[in-house]
Design goal:
The protein has a single domain (9-17, 26-98), classed as GroES chaperonin (10 Kd Chaperonin, Protein Cpn10, Chain O). The chain has one helix and eight strands. It has one helix spanning 98-102, and strands at residues 9-14, 37-43, 47-48, 54-55, 64-67, 73-77, 80-86, 90-93.
Length: 103
């Protein structure tokens, strides 16, 4: 099954949280917070203005984005947990740095 979001909505797949803290301590699943970072897997066509024009979204499929802790609506499609978020609720796009790209 495929899912196409409408208007200015974006479908995001959460990026798994680290299982180990910076100090090397393993964190159990029950103690972990849900990550607020994900990968865009689908985007709508854009928001429609009052004059009927469609304004395309600033994010694209494959972008890595940050979003608020309580943003969006969680859904399950094909057994996978996804989030549908309005573009306005996205905080920003995480751009890869030159040092990350070389690694």
């Amino acid at each position: 099954m495929t899912f196409r979001p409408l208007q200015d909505r974006v479908v995001v797949r959460r990026i798994d949280a680290e299982q180990k803290s910076a100090g090397g301590i393993f964190i159990p699943d029950t103690a972990q917070e849900k990550p607020m970072e994900g990968t865009v897997i689908a985007v709508g066509p854009g928001a429609r203005s009052e004059d009927g024009r469609v304004h395309p979204l600033d994010v694209e499929v494959g972008d890595r984005v940050l979003f608020g802790k309580w943003s969006g609506t969680e859904i399950k499609i094909g057994g996978e947990e996804l989030i549908i978020i309005n573009e306005l609720d996205l905080i920003g796009v995480v751009e890869p740095t030159a040092s990350r790209m070389a690694a």
